[in-house]
Amino acid sequence: MKTSKFSQLSASVLANAIYAMKNFPVMLVNTVLAPFGLLIIIFFVSHGTLLNVGILGGFILVMVNNGISIQGDLTHLRNDMKLQDMLVSSPVSPAIYVAGIALSELVFSIPDLIVLSILAVIFIHISAISALTVAAVMLLTFLFSISLGFFISTISRDVIEGWAFMGLISMVLSTLPPVYYPVTYIPMPFRYLAYISPTTFSAIIAQGSIGFVKFSSSFILISWTVLIVVSIALIVFAIKRSRWREE
Amino acid sequence: MVKLIVRNLSKNYKDKKKKKSSALKNVSLDLDINGIFTLIGRNGAGKTTFIRIVSTELLPTAGKVYLDGIDVVKSPKDIRGSIAVIPQEAELIPWMTARENIYAYLLWRGFSFKEAKERTNTVLSRFKLEKYADKLPRKLSGGTKRKVLVALVISSNAKIIFLDEPTTGLDPISRRELWEVLNELKKEHLIVLTTHYLEEAEELSDYIIILNKGKLVKAGTINDIRNEIGYPYAIKVFGGFNKNIKLKGKVVKKNDGTFQVFSDERSANDLAKKLIKTKVRFSINPTSLEDIFYMLVGDINREEENENE
Predict the structure, then answer these.
(1) Count of domains in chain A?
(2) For chain A, which residues lie within 8 Å of any Cβ of chain B, measuring from their own Cβ?
């Protein structure tokens, strides 16, 4: 029998995103509202001055949260449904399965991305180049988040443990770092702590691209380098940790 | 017929403290099988490990396995199109209906959207599951959920289906219903089953292997095993068994205080006469799989027993 890789990719997207949203619309509401809590707080506290930065922060939070969600989903499907065991003994390859689940996380973020894009068009008046820059940053942010989530799924033995990891990482990557406000608002020497999180560099590039904060071009270059290196390192690490057939 | 060749198969696990435990120890087999092939044994006997290795989920520590002429250890991809597995404790994905579960599984296996849809409808109708098709798993009974899982793997048209303890936790009626389904399916597929319900194994199996503590105890059809053991009759003695009674056979003391005497037809006849004389209550039956299992695994575990020749 000839197997269709497109069907195999679609199966993950259908199972992990489309059917979940269709049969449990409350999940959609929950996902859509997630980035707006902080955005509203930032909006009121800054009297509206940080709205544009907050919208960019919303994009980063959506990418991080949906990216690392892969670990909870993979752990749940593997441990509680035994889906991975069923699929190992089938023609689907591990790469297609994981790529499909990763794609499903991206599909889950589409409603958020649409709402945030509308807000960006209205409030940021973003240029085409800035939009492309932000899109590239979001893609890298999603890639390292998904790789990190995948890596954690290989070490978490239980979905409860997985959820705990998810909450922790979400806080470390999207709530604590200066994602919804500029890094320059953090006084020295605490600012150095912010540089531990790769999302700080995502925010620096995104905020710089819309001209909200002026960073030197060398600093922007360093930020791109950090983001690319972190993404590649985490992807390689995740691939090395992955195992389809148990040993 | 499907050929299953297993050579010196061993599997060791290491726990967190690097302490080694053996789940399978040098298992070797050479069988031509069809219908329902059942692995029986107590919990921890190595049934699931065996099935996981043969179905390419798990790598062995040592040994070779050839299924349908394919080396499943070295070339797992070559067999994966022909097999389908329902692991122990597998569940339907709870946020998807029965129909969606089957459809997604078929897409994962690489069927086109059109074919997956057609196959989903066909299998739902074949298993008389149409009225449950659009319900979420939480609204289905345990038996129906298990039936949907079986329908799901059958829809793939895989030649060999592995079912790891498919009836565990089901009520007796659901279990019987699933037996009917399996008896129907064995006409078209080789079904590899694990169970610790011996009456289920006896009812369904065409071939059996008995595992105990990772070792192969016996393999073959029930009749082969019965003949090999050489005790076609089992006499259950309720009450004291006089060890001075001479008989050709084997005596096993059971945990409930009764004695099981395995013997040939003539000795069984002699013993029955003596037991009637001494007014000891007893029953006599052809040796069942449960008797065989008790005799063999009882031996291995060195339970209290006597051997009289």
Answers:
(1) 1
(2) 1-5, 7-8, 10-12, 14-15, 19-20, 23-24, 77, 80-83, 85-92, 97, 245-247
Q: Computed from CA positions of residues B33, B211, B182, B151, in that sequence, does the dihedral angle turn out positive or negative? A: negative
- The reply to whether B59 and B161 lie within a common domain is yes
Note the pTM of the prediction, 2 decimals: 0.87
Across the interface, do B87 and A19 touch by the CB < 8 Å criterion?
no
> Tens digits of per-residue pLDDT, A86-115?
999 999 998 899 999 999 999 989 999 998
**Residues B97 and B138 sit within 8 Å (Cβ to Cβ):** no
Q: ipTM value of the model? A: 0.88
Residue B309 has pLDDT above 60, yes or no: no
User: Is residue B107 a contact partner of residue A11, using CB atoms and an 8 Å limit?
Assistant: yes
d(CA A190, CA A202): 18
The two beta strands, B83-86 and B160-164, are parallel
**Which residues in chain A are contacts of B156 at CB distance < 8 A?**
90
Domain boundaries, position B295: 227-308
Measured in whole angstroms, how far is the alpha carbon of residue A119 from the centre of its chain? 19
The per-residue pLDDT for range B178-195, each reduced to its tens digit, is 899 899 999 999 999 998
Instruction: Answer whether residue A193 is part of any domain.
Output: yes
